[in-house]
Amino acid sequence: MPIDPLSPTAVRVDEGGPVVFVITRGDSVGGAQIHVRDLASRLRAEGEAVLVLLGSSGPFTDDLDQRDVPWRICPGLARSINPVRDIRAVREVHRILLRVRPRLVSTHTAKAGLVGRLAACWTSTPVVFTAHGWQFTPGIPPAQRLFVYGLELFLSRLPVPQRVITVSQFDQRLARRSAAVPPGRLRLVYNGLPGTGVVDRPARREPPSGEAPIPARSPRLIMIARFQAQKDHETLLRALAEIPGSWELFLVGEEGPLSKRVQELAIELGFGRRWNAEAGTAAEKRRVVAFLGHRGDIA
């Protein structure tokens, strides 16, 4: 639920204070948002005080509301980097940190890592930055890579207790090779999922003796990713175009800057399209891309 953390009763300040999460977008649900949601929910379930600071509301804040996780909008935390807006955001976050006196600030994504770490340094609060993919990785425009790399050199060396977490070996190795982060501050912690139980697959039914074999269903593939350049849906579709036979591809993820282009590419390659999992006759399911949008019913 949205709160005013400057009011006396907004956040329960235990000894050592709450854990404050800082992230940019609330109007989108991606890997970083799910990561924050699961961490905040678990901490809250264990009796810890938490607060999520973000730049906008939307599906992600709706998700937090369902889990009774308090959140607050800081308008300056809009996703794109803007010097004037970023200074305002640092002041907003700094003011909140002074009030709630957190035991830890946990920042996620590049912009939130910039704002949150500066504000944490200003208040001498221990801080963690989780890099959900570096913005100086190969494939990013050179000018942007150079700018973000220089920024990380500065931020990861701020005089405040700090750790930088990568969620994959690729990102950890990139940070080490480039010396972007001091080795003593760098950690690798893989993304995890809350326990969801194991669902047993039903055994394949064998036909009675004398009956024709049950035909095998076409292979089903699932890709869970937002429609943006880093996810590279195009390579997957072009690779599938080279594979003979029938198949079904399910694309799960909310619309992004490249969603229309991916739909157009599916048409260009001669694939069928649909917008749910089961529609279509057997003949129509030979080589089909199903665009399922954002789903809240998968881990």
Describe the fold and architecture:
The chain is of the alpha/beta class and 299 residues long. It folds into 2 domains: 19-188, Rossmann fold (3-Layer(aba) Sandwich); 220-293. Helices cover 33% and strands 17% of the residues. The protein has 8 helices and 11 strands. It has helices at 31-45, 59-66, 83-100, 110-123, 142-155, 169-178, 233-241, 259-268, and strands at 19-22, 50-54, 71-73, 104-108, 127-131, 162-166, 186-188, 220-224, 247-252, 272-274, 287-293. The protein has a 7-stranded parallel sheet with strand order 3-2-1-4-5-6-7, with helices on both faces. Helix 1 (31-45) links the parallel strand 1 and strand 2. It is globular and about 60 Å long. The chain starts with 18 loop residues before the first strand and ends in a 6-residue tail after the last strand.
What is the CATH class of the largest domain? Alpha Beta
Assign the CATH architecture of the largest domain: 3-Layer(aba) Sandwich
Distance between the termini: 23 Å
Largest sheet: 7 strands, parallel
In CATH terms, the superfamily of the largest domain is Glycogen Phosphorylase B
Number of domains: 2
Which whole number gives the mean pLDDT?
84
Order of helices and strands: EHEHEHEHEHEHEEHEHEE
Helix/strand class:
alpha/beta
Low-confidence stretches: 4-14
CATH T-level fold name of the largest domain? Rossmann fold
